[in-house]
Write a structure and sequence with these properties.
Layout (H helix, E strand, L loop, with lengths): L2 E7 L1 H46 L1 E2 L14 E9 L3 E4 L4 E4 L2 E21 L5 E14 L26 E4 L4 E2 L2 E2 L2 H4 L5 E3 L6 H19 L19 H13 L10 E2 L3 E4 L2 E4 L11 E8 L2 E10 L2 E3 L1 E2 L5 E2 L1 E4 L4 H34 L1 H6 L4 H34 L1 H19 L2 H14 L7
Helix pairs in contact: 1-5, 1-7, 5-7, 7-8, 8-9
């Protein structure tokens, strides 16, 4: 059931807040300007670096054999990334010959969601209605329910145990006759599920510990012999039933569940260890741990040969570059992808910067808008007009900043952008649209020359 809270903000308080918002508008515009300028410089420098790197990159024909002639060269080679190291999760006694071994921990908790709606009242007051709803979900860390707004849900969260996430990585991963550096190792993404086989005594010990916690939290008698206790049936509630399907996503389809072990409060299945009475009917407090490993795989490396290992390429502009891609890739494919990524991030940051500029300009008018909220109708009209103007001014301002950055880094393209920005100013600020329409109508109105 939803919990509703209503709050009222007085006119004087709103005016005071609007002054702060106006000052914040200047800060936002300055920050957005720096972001736009920096982004254009980053894009140009990255493009130049990639051009230098592609021009210097040579094929490594046989990574399985050391080639001293390639020392100091930026190479592109494909080989198996492999390791002989055995990684051990000491808390669960899990050992794997793998490049990495990770455990991901999730907790089944009540989660608070809120949705607010504000309404201006005559006289300048603002009434805000906030609706809080609560749902049981798997989350990455325990949720403090003591801060929930609805008293009926406060202090409803607890966990049977708390386990830290963990990522273990092999220190030595070979690439043919070479050794990968740490950055390249961490770029390998050949992830698979771990077929668990946890020691039964350890599982029973964990089961006893969870049973004690369960009894303490639920106010039940402490079990005497947890290993032989019968498993009580668990009712499948509607939220739990919906969540049960998510368990199937945790247990990878690629492994069997022959390793399934069911104690009363601890369960092992596939690559999951589960703390709770039932894996199929989660209840608040349950904990789910998923184990995965990174296995040897064929990879393509672009990096500078440094003896028997690798180091980043340093371009003329001092930017560094090295990359690892899964599978076999050519030099052309890798640098095409890198340039596409550079373009994508350039446009993402441009859009973010432009939106911030528009937001900043709108904030500059928040004081005037708030003053008019004594009569909400007038305030709405003012806000609509200001929104249009700030959007146009924000786009023009952003284009000018981008153009100036390009003039600094790439003069020709920068001048083109300035021309575009100037044209927009002419159209929207100096009634250029009307003049264009007049010219168009005049052209249509001119009579065709009479036939002789």
């Amino acid at each position: 059931m939803a919990y509703t809270e209503k709050t009222t903000t007085g006119y004087g308080t709103r005016v005071g807040n609007s002054i702060k918002a106006t000052l914040m508008g200047f800060v936002i515009i300055i920050g957005a300007t720096i972001l736009l300028w920096w982004n254009e410089g980053r894009a140009v420098k990255t493009a130049d670096m990639l051009e230098d790197a592609q021009g210097a990159c040579v094929e490594m024909p046989n990574p399985d054999k050391m080639d001293k002639s390639l020392d100091g060269e930026l190479v592109c080679g494909t080989a198996m990334a492999n390791t002989e190291e055995v990684l051990t999760d000491t808390d669960f006694g899990i050992s794997e010959n793998a490049i990495s071994l990770s455990r991901k921990v999730e907790y089944f908790q009540w989660v608070e969601h809120s949705e607010s709606k504000s309404e201006d009242k005559l006289g300048g007051k603002e009434e805000t209605t906030t609706t809080y709803t609560y749902k049981q979900e798997w989350v990455s860390s325990p949720v403090n329910s003591g801060d929930f707004k609805d008293p009926a849900y406060q202090n409803k969260n607890y966990t049977w145990t708390v386990v830290e996430n963990q990522d273990l990585w092999a220190e030595k991963v070979t690439f043919g006759a070479y050794v990968l550096n740490e950055s390249l190792i961490h770029s390998i993404s050949s992830t698979e599920a771990v077929e668990l086989n946890v020691n039964e005594q350890l599982l029973q010990s964990m089961d006893k510990s969870v049973a004690d916690t369960y009894a303490r939290i639920k106010g039940l008698p402490t079990p005497v012999n947890q290993a032989n206790a019968a498993v009580a049936p668990v009712a499948q509630t509607e939220p739990a039933a919906a969540t049960a399907d998510s368990l199937q996503t945790a247990i990878a389809d690629s492994i069997s569940q022959n390793n399934k072990v069911d104690l009363e409060y601890v369960h092992q299945a596939g690559n999951v260890i589960y703390y709770g009475r039932s894996m199929n009917a989660p209840e608040v407090g349950d904990v789910r741990i998923t184990f995965e490993k990174t296995v040897p795989a064929k990879v393509t490396v672009v990096s500078v040969v440094d003896g028997n290992t690798f180091k980043p390429f340093v371009a003329k502009n001092k930017k560094k570059f090295q990359t690892l891609r899964m599978g076999k890739k050519s030099i052309e494919e890798i640098f095409e992808e890198e340039n596409e990524n550079n373009t994508m991030w350039t446009w993402i940051l441009r859009i973010v910067g432009i939106l911030l500029v528009i937001s900043g300009f709108k904030s500059l008018f928040s004081f005037l808008e708030t003053l008019l909220k004594v009569v909400p109708f007038l305030s709405s009209i003012f806000a609509f007009g200001v929104g249009i103007i700030c959007t146009i001014v924000g786009i023009v301002y952003s284009l000018i900043v981008i153009a100036l950055a390009w003039i600094f880094y790439r003069p020709v393209l920068g001048i083109i952008l300035l021309v575009i920005a100037g044209f927009l100013v002419w159209v929207f600020a100096f009634n250029g649209k009307k003049k264009l329409a007049e010219l168009t109508n005049k052209g249509k109105a001119e009579p065709a020359p009479a036939a002789e």
